[in-house]
Amino acid sequence: MLLETSDLTKRFGAITANDRVDLSVERGEIRGIIGPNGAGKSTLFNVITGFHEPDAGTINFDGTDITGLSPAEVTQEGLCRTFQITSPLEDMNVYKNLLAAYTPGFRIPEWKRERADEILELLEIEHERETKAGDLSGGQQKLLELGRVLMLEPECIMLDEPTAGVNPALQERILEYLGHANESGTTLIIIEHDMKVISEITDTVTVFDQGSIIVEGPFNEVKNDPQVREAYLGSDTDGMEALI
Ligand code: ADP
Ligand code: MG
Fold first, then answer.
1. How far is the CA of 192 from the centre of ligand 2 (A)?
2. What is the pLDDT of residues 189-223, one digit of tens each?
3. Would you say the pTM of this structure is higher than 0.70?
4. Which atom of ligand 1 is nearest to the CA of 37?
């Protein structure tokens, strides 16, 4: 297993956002994470990537116990993430945002510049190179955030709703690029409400409800599972319609 959580638990006061979660992801997978709003999906990402300390349980990544490591240390281990709400360095232009994914302030070697050029081209945002990140559209900011993560060439990327609020053309581009990254060996774990996206690119889907994993399997099986339908029925999540 590349990533394995065991009994992972996170509470916020009376709320148990993650309740003894055992998640296992194999190297090379594209794993989908779905479930109604408030099910604990983003919290799981926050705990795994060091933004929240778990109340109990362990996280193993690529043979290393990463429980309790800081976000920067988790990144160093080769596990990167993007956020549901993106936060680029707004006053910096797109190109510098990409370069800043590396240790800012240090001299930037030529190969990093080349890598940034390559990513701008692949994501088709070369023309926005000099644009301040804060002036990009929401969809373009998502692309930039993805670009910043890709600069690091991580073993595994965790994406929190990478296509939310993105127009269909841009959505296709993001998916295509994620597909390429996966083909070249990057493991992907994706939280997504858009069931079309989930059915298109994932190998296995893990369904969360009320802090726990309720079902796991290929999307086509999972979507017909009575427990999954019941979880979505009681919610106002966008994904519900596509599922039912
Ligand atoms: P999802 O991403 O599946 O929609 P979240 O992980 O964001 O769900 O939230 C799970 C539960 O934890 C919700 O009840 C939410 O209100 C709560 N929660 C998440 N983050 C915090 C926080 N920082 N402080 C307090 N409660 C939180
Ligand atoms: Mg969320």
1. 9
2. 999 999 999 999 999 999 999 999 999 999 999 99
3. yes
4. 4
* Architecture of domain 3-86+155-243 in this structure: 3-Layer(aba) Sandwich (3.40)
The protein residue whose alpha carbon is closest to atom 12 in ligand 1 is 17
Greatest C-alpha distance within the chain:
56
Which ligand sits nearest to residue 52's alpha carbon? 1
Task: Using DSSP bridges, classify how beta strands 56-61 and 15-21 pair: parallel, antiparallel or unpaired.
Answer: unpaired
Q: What is the tens place of the pLDDT at every residue in 102-112?
A: 665 567 788 88
Residues within 6 Å of ligand 1 by CB? 12, 15, 17, 35, 37-43
Ligand nearest to the CA of 33: 1
Place of tokens 């193993």: 60
Q: How far apart are CA 137 and CA 229, in angstroms?
A: 34
| Domain ranges (residues) in the chain | 3-86+155-243
User: Which residue is closest in CA terms to ligand 1's atom 26?
Assistant: 12
C-alpha 53/C-alpha 128 separation (Å) is 37
